[in-house]
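Posting this for the archive.
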Amino acid sequence: MDSMTKYAAIDIGSNAVRLLLAMVSAEEEFGLRVKKISWMRMPIRLGEDAFLRGMISDERACKLTKTMGGFAKLIDAYQPVAVKACATSAMRSAGNGRQVCRRIREQTGIDIEIINGRQEARYLFQNRHQIMTSPEKAALFVDVGGGSTEITLFCDGRVQASRSFNLGTIRLLNNRARQQDWDLMKSWLKKITRGHEPVEAIGSGGNINKLFKLAKGRPGTWVSLKKIKKIRDELADYALEERMKRFYLKPDRADVIIPAARIYIKAMTWGRCEKIHVPMQGLADGMIRVLHDQRVQAQSIGTQMHAPAIESA
């Protein structure tokens, strides 16, 4: 196997669509190492259609198809050994989600897999943080997306409980979060964390990455629940335009960051977490690791993986 192997991953979320081009190497001393070569994000907001209307509109379907066509050209230039594209909550919720995916495959050659909450969590698990395997503390992994929140409790390296909730930033922003989902998350978190002390959170997603930076968190460290609350309150003090200027936020981040903070704060409070670690890795990173594992397994049994042919849009 080459010392560095190229892969591409596409994450089609409720708020944005992301392309990650990466190289992976397996080294005896350091284990698996992933180097990000390029990262592109397009804020298409599929969730605003899916959660409000139950369908992806023609306008957003067209934007998504054009974006995927652009990604296809970048992937073709990069020449990875394998490509994976996954769609999450918005495409799951949209009545025409599979139809949109077929259209994209026909026009760009990119085959999109619509994954459920458990599959999404499995990809996220690949970005293993050291406290996931700690014998001294439990880890509560929280990934907040536009349409759903995936939460998993780890104890001594093992999954103790895992669940997906219909609580996401786009749902909250458009008043589509149901009280029963909040109640379900609260009771479930209190139940699964009982008897596991201490519990520390691991945050995943673009919003917690930004909250962590605003809290002046440093790589490899954590920030407190109290600090996250303080940053949330500071953000909430300003209207959208002023919030963008004062905190250097993009428009599609400035409006969802407060709903995201609300979900993280509630998850940490109900899960009795006073600290949150933010490794700055997400779904696409986990997909890259899975692609590499699949290639290693395929080579061990004498088969071969190939990247699918990508057509220009």
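The first helix runs from residue 46 to 53. The chain is about 45% helix and 25% strand.
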